[in-house]
Write a structure and sequence with these properties.
Length: 276
């Protein structure tokens, strides 16, 4: 069965960039399928085009939209029972250049805890995602906050001077899709599924897994560069204080610029197919 979005949707947009099939559209926005534009299936909420949804079969072990949805409103559509065979065939049609082979990620696989291949998916309410506790819709970080992958120091290497806490506090620029204003959110609050609100227009935004991972990787690079800069400074002769301060400021600005480019490109992503 294709996945469907219920009217509990809060229009946070977290699911849209996660879909490998470009099956999710914002309410009121016409969708593209088989080379032509079609009228939106919902005017008020994000919606899924059934003919483009493979329940993520071929890509993930569970439905990516359901994983990031903060209010658990991406559910199996009980009116469209479909088998894994039907769903992987849909993925193959949508991605003719992809070679899925005979072994591919699937919510039906044993590892994913799904139903047997060839059997229709279980009734709504039986997926792992749905049985999980609903994420808090308040603008607070999910608990626990996943720490970015800061490289562990080798025993003989100088301890990192940029602590994980300072990376978690790094202000990440966020571009509001509604008012196009920019505001900053500490990295610690960008955990996937957390619902944030634009301080300018109150529009909601919820970062997805890809946003979190790409920003996390960028901040890892920033931490590496900052550690190298501090090492260089400590080994340099005194009197280079001004150069050090300038280099620190340059690194911070370069990191903020890179994060801004990442956020911009990710917000544009839903308008394009991830496979071009
Ligand atoms: S289940 Fe997967 S393919 Fe279907 S709409 Fe959600 S993210 Fe897209
Ligand atoms: S993640 Fe859930 S609440 Fe947010 S837009 Fe998608 S369906 Fe709606």
């Amino acid at each position: 069965m294709a996945t469907v979005i219920t009217d509990e949707c809060i229009n946070c947009a977290a699911c849209e960039p996660e879909c490998p099939n470009t099956a999710i559209y914002e309410g009121g926005v016409e969708y593209q399928h088989e080379g032509s534009a079609h009228q939106a299936l919902s005017e008020d909420f994000f919606y899924i085009i059934p003919d483009r949804c493979s329940e993520c079969v071929g890509f993930f072990d569970e439905e990516a939209c359901a994983v990031v949805c903060p209010v658990d409103c991406c559910i199996p559509d009980p009116d469209r029972p479909e088998t894994e065979v039907q769903l992987i065939e849909r993925a193959r049609v949508l991605h003719p250049d992809e070679n899925f082979g005979d072994s591919f990620p699937s919510r039906f696989s044993d590892d994913a805890g799904g139903a047997d291949a060839g059997e229709p998916a279980a009734e709504a309410g039986s997926t792992a995602t749905e049985s999980a506790a609903p994420a808090s819709p308040v603008p607070a970080p999910a608990s626990p906050v996943p720490a970015p992958a800061t490289p562990a120091p080798a025993a003989a290497v100088t301890e990192p001077v940029v602590e994980a806490s300072s990376v978690l506090d790094f202000p990440v620029p966020v571009l509001c899709r509604s008012c196009e204003g920019e505001y900053e959110v500490d990295f610690r609050f960008l955990t996937p599924g957390t619902v944030l609100r634009c301080p300018l227009c109150q529009a909601s935004f919820s970062p997805g897994q890809r946003v979190f991972l790409e920003i996390s990787r960028s901040l890892d690079r920033y931490a590496d560069l900052m550690n190298a800069e501090v090492d260089r400074h400590e080994s340099a002769v005194k009197g280079e204080g001004e150069s050090h301060e300038a280099n620190i400021a340059d690194l911070k600005k370069a990191s903020a610029d890179e994060l801004r480019r990442i956020v911009e490109s990710l917000l544009e992503r839903p308008r394009r197919s991830m496979f071009g």
